[in-house]
Design goal:
By secondary structure, the chain is α/β, with parallel strands linked by helices. The chain has helices at about 40-50, 70-75, 90-100, 105-120, 135-145, 165-180, 190-195, 215-220, 235-245, 275-285, 300-305, 315-320, and strands at about 1-10, 15-25, 30-35, 55-60, 65, 75-80, 155, 185, 200-205, 210-215, 225-235, 250, 255-260, 260-270, 290-295. It has twelve helices and 15 strands. The protein has a six-stranded mixed sheet with strand order 6-7-8-3-9-10, with helices on both faces. Strand 13 (about 255-260) and strand 14 (about 260-270) form a beta hairpin.
């Protein structure tokens, strides 16, 4: 459906995107992840035809976005991070205006506008001025306009920003439903959303791709060792000493208090059978095992691992996502 080859974007001396290649398959939801300033929005703007690339090609539904821009853009619906709405227009008026811009046939405009408004639950707002809508409703109007023209590709940049939890759930269901007829590239800082709807993810950092795979494969491949989630009643110093004395234990996390004299640990093992040795050692030393289960890396931990060479140590994923990149020399060099 979409093929990106050797894509590069320069802003003066600064390189926002460096020689990246990936594809979006038919009827696939592809997650596109990266910290602020990584090059995500620049890449999506190039795919949508809003920005020219310095080098490389983007092909959408068989059409080159540069050489055959008109045909390629007919296959694209784009919701940027800031919805492209006109505050002085009414919702229905704006939707019909966008349909005209997209070249929707006159006889199909009303039906497409009605369908898009119904899917995003904004039909009852049709007469409202967009400036008077809440942030969440403006976001839904922006999403609705992306559906006009029945594009084969949907580019969704933070589509749930400003929505309440119930609305977020509705949008997730909508995205999964849209997969039947569309290919979707989906960018979000909320990794639970990505895990819920995406099949594969692309992780980009400093303009370069760091990982492309299914979430399951990434979670499995990011560590060579098995991880054990362990909850124990008893003294932490004694527990850690016993765990570290077990052959095959490579790492023990700092204890996390979860109750009176009860602590959670993550223990890295060379192989799964080592957990039997751990159980025997803890019982022999009269330490109560509350819970023991095999764990895997979460998407958050995968994200941190593949971007950990970005600089200073962060205490959490949110620290990384919330970082503001340094101001570039060129004022247009923003993600």
């Amino acid at each position: 459906m979409v093929e990106i080859k050797n894509l590069t974007k320069h802003y003066g001396k600064n390189i926002a995107v460096r020689n990246i290649s990936f594809e979006i398959r038919d009827n696939e939801i592809l997650g596109f992840l990266g910290p602020n300033g990584a090059g995500k929005s620049t890449t999506m703007n190039i795919i949508a035809g809003y920005l020219p690339s310095t080098e490389g090609t983007v092909t959408v539904n068989g059409f080159d976005i540069t050489e055959q821009a008109s045909e390629a853009k007919k296959s694209i619906g784009y919701l940027p991070e800031i919805p492209p709405v006109y505050p002085d227009m009414r919702v229905e008026e704006y939707m019909k205006f966008v349909a005209g811009l997209k070249g929707v046939r006159r006889g199909e405009v009303s039906a497409q506008v009605e369908s898009a408004m119904e899917r995003l639950h904004i039909s009852d707002m049709r007469r409202r001025l967009i400036r008077n809508l809440s942030k969440g409703y403006k976001q839904r109007v922006g999403f609705a306009q992306a559906l006009l023209g029945n594009p084969k590709l949907l580019i969704l940049d933070e589509p749930t920003v400003g929505l309440d939890p119930a609305q977020v759930s509705e949008v997730r269901k909508l995205i999964l439903d849209l997969k039947k007829d569309h290919s979707i590239i989906f960018s979000s800082h909320i990794l639970a959303e990505v895990s819920a709807v995406c099949e594969r993810v692309v992780i980009i950092n400093k303009g370069e791709i760091k990982a492309i795979d299914t979430i399951e494969n990434l979670e499995r491949s990011m560590t060579a060792n098995t991880i054990l989630d362990l909850t124990v009643d008893g003294d932490t110093t004694k527990t850690i000493r016993i765990l570290k004395d077990v052959r095959g234990v490579t790492k023990v996390s700092e204890p996390e208090a979860i109750g009176e004299n009860r602590y959670h640990y993550q223990v890295e093992l060379e192989s799964e059978p080592v957990r039997n040795e751990i159980m025997s050692a803890l019982v022999a030393n009269q330490l109560g095992i509350v819970e023991m289960s095999m764990a895997k890396l979460s998407l958050e931990q995968v994200f941190l691992k593949v971007t950990e060479n970005s600089g200073k140590k962060r205490s959490s994923l949110q620290d990384l996502l919330d970082e503001t990149p340094e101001a570039p020399e060129n004022p247009y060099d923003a993600e």
